[in-house]
Automatic annotation (TrEMBL):
Listed Gene3D superfamilies: 3.10.20.30, Alpha-helical ferredoxin (1.10.1060.10)
SUPFAM superfamilies, per database record: 2Fe-2S ferredoxin-like (SSF54292), alpha-helical ferredoxin (SSF46548)
GO molecular function: 2 iron, 2 sulfur cluster binding; 3 iron, 4 sulfur cluster binding; 4 iron, 4 sulfur cluster binding; electron transfer activity; metal ion binding; succinate dehydrogenase (quinone) activity
UniProt organism field: Callosobruchus maculatus (Southern cowpea weevil)
Known pathway: Carbohydrate metabolism; tricarboxylic acid cycle; fumarate from succinate (eukaryal route): step 1/1
Cofactor needs: [4Fe-4S] cluster; [2Fe-2S] cluster; [3Fe-4S] cluster
Chief location of this protein within or outside the cell: mitochondrion
Protein name: Succinate dehydrogenase [ubiquinone] iron-sulfur subunit, mitochondrial
Amino acid sequence: MSILRKLLRALVVSIHIFLSYYHYFSHLHKKTYFQQRRFFSVTEFKYAQKQEDKGTKEDKDTKKKDEKKKVPRMKTFKIYRFDPETGNKKPKMQSYTIDINDCRPMILDALMKIKTEQDSTLSFRKSCREGICGSCGVNVDGINRLACLHKIRPRGTTKIYPLPHMYVIKDLIVDMNKFLAQHSRIKPYPIPKQEHCVKAEGEEQFLQSIKDREKMDGLVECILCACCSTSCPEYWWHGHTKAPNDFLGPAALLNAYRWIVDTRDGATQERLNDLKNYYNVYRCHQINNCTSVCPKRLEPGRAIAQLRLHLARFKKKPKPDMEGKVPADPYKACPKDECE
């Protein structure tokens, strides 16, 4: 009987030892560092414990950050409201409060959030959301901005108005017909010389050197957002008078200078003659509000100064480095079969 008891005790002890080792190795096997290993040293085990402790600390830190983020940050916007269809012809400022933690960082994102969640009657223009189309121009806290490029200030109340001194159609939407008509008067398209007239559309193209093309940098980037013209005091006073005695505005004059500088254009003198009216160019007082608010960082004031030098014949258009034209190859970028 004594031998049998000793055997039973040895069996129980061996089972306990086996189970303890089994739990030990199964716990280590869960760690990614030891997935492909079977035997471990003491140093490796301590290293694994440190890594586990570090991971738990990082998890705690992320949880604390998430808790901080969950704390709402309320922001108030006062938005200009005007709807002639309601019968109330007086505009008003309406307040909206949103949580900017649940909103993307731009003014346009806040407007879209308000329209989606609070007031579907709010009207404004938008298209590309990348600062390319120029359709979301508004006045934010007294300064003309593109709503898609201007960030929300986390503190204080933000006031949003339509572009100043423009006829308001509804809320933040203004009438751009006069502005675009003035732009069309500067003939924003190339007028070739008589000897360089193109036979048919798409058959020939005009040559231009890289150096001559660089002269138009800072002019061709205009997106016609009207932020510059509607920030100009002279445009407020004389921009809406009857043509031709109206000030064309910084945007139109910037584009006029862009076509005068273009070496491929052959109607330089004709364009200058169209701008000899005193009100078209010389009403600019170089206040340079247009330059300070331009979302593309252009310099309309400098372009107007250059136009004056050309009109006064202090400056002439230099001869181009390259002239003439070459046959156009519309299928150079892609084969004809693929394009069709």
